[in-house]
Specification:
It is built from 4 helices and no strands. Helix 1 runs antiparallel to helix 2, helix 1 runs antiparallel to helix 4 and helix 2 packs antiparallel against helix 3. The radius of gyration is 15 Å and the shape is elongated.
């Protein structure tokens, strides 16, 4: 694939992931106020949403091999683990780190847009 097209495709995937992580932050804020069965149901939905985001990142690997992308995947998986153990502060921290990393990846490739 043409390197310029590859960079453009990576940029689009990273921007989509960034947007999804931003939306997820709001959903996690709602989850924080839940308990019992409501929490468990909300957690299941959020974990499914995170799986979808991981799939987006895996697809982006067809266009770009970047160690930072792998680190974003790790942070998302860390967030998932912390959600499972109800460690909300740590889940938010991992999500914030993933969001920062993916923003940097998108910004690195923004030159192809301008």
């Amino acid at each position: 694939m043409d390197p310029m097209k590859s960079e453009l495709m990576a940029y689009q995937y990273f921007e989509r992931v960034k947007s999804n992580l931003t939306h997820l932050s709001r959903l996690m804020s709602e989850l924080e106020g839940m308990s019992g069965e409501e929490y468990e149901g909300g957690k299941k939905i959020i974990l499914s949403y995170l799986e979808g985001i991981l799939n987006e990142l895996k697809i982006s690997s067809n266009f770009v091999q970047d160690s930072e992308r792998i680190e974003v995947e790790r942070k998302i998986m860390e967030c998932m683990g912390k959600l499972s153990t109800k460690e909300m502060d740590e889940a938010f921290r991992a999500l914030g780190e993933a969001l920062s990393l993916i923003s940097n990846l998108a910004n690195k490739r923004s030159h192809v847009m301008f």
